[in-house]
Predict the structure.
Amino acid sequence: MTAMNNQPRPSFKSPRFAQPATFMRLPHTDDLAGIDVAIVGVPYDGGTSYRPGARLGPREVRHQSSLIRTYNAFQKVAPFDRLNVADAGDVDPPPVSIEKAYDAIEARIGQIAGAGARPIVVGGDHSITLPILRALARRHGRLALVQFDAHIDTWDEYFGGKYFHGTMFRRAIEEGLVDGRRFVQVGIRGPMYGEDDFDFHREHGITVIDIDQVKDRGIAWTIDEIRRIVTGPAYMTFDIDGVDPAFAPGTGTPEVGGLTSHEAIRLVRGLRGLSLVGGDIVEVAPLFDGPGQITAVLAANVMFEFLCALVR
């Protein structure tokens, strides 16, 4: 630990319900000098195809993060002693144009990466991952990718448009941002349009670990498969609808039969030691959340576990 590292506001001196909401009550700053990890919100949901509301996710996830304590007993790490972390606020994405929103997101993530910090992004709908990958691939080269999700998100078009929250990983491979052979999707389930939905996967070597494989073969096997596939500079994207709506109802496109909250946390813990250059948690829509804001609480804890996984 260095004396310069930021620390969350101590709960024995400041009650958790006091002060403006930042992630885990970290200091807010626009100055990225000396920052190892930058928490950044992207309040944008112009890429949704069903229920809107994920634009309100960053604010609610920050609010619900105030209860999280600073030591992770399962990963055996106090991340704020090892990493200098700050809440860098939100991107200001124009809500009326997905292309302009992408420009704003890519520019801000580029600033964070250029300063030597790794971004942990809270969305926002899943379409925001594409400009994040653009910025990070420009710095790190073609990336490996682990995607926790109910949906494959590799469709081609939606109403004639190339950008929405179901197309970004096709675009990412087409643009050379992601290596399909180092790309694994975990928790995929639910009805599809047809078997040809997976043609793109077969063409580019994308691995799918569907929800039945996770449940039948177990978390340890799933983590081993992720670690076998995801080599080199890697990014994690976590769509909260990968979790069963019994545990995470607050999302725009819920699918039954998903991960439990415990399985989700264990899977993220399993990423520790990979060459992670950043990650996101997306599709939290607070207006549809259950009692106690359980979806936002889970998303905040996924972010904390991912932060701990960044400690090498």
Remarks:
- The chain has one domain: 37-309.
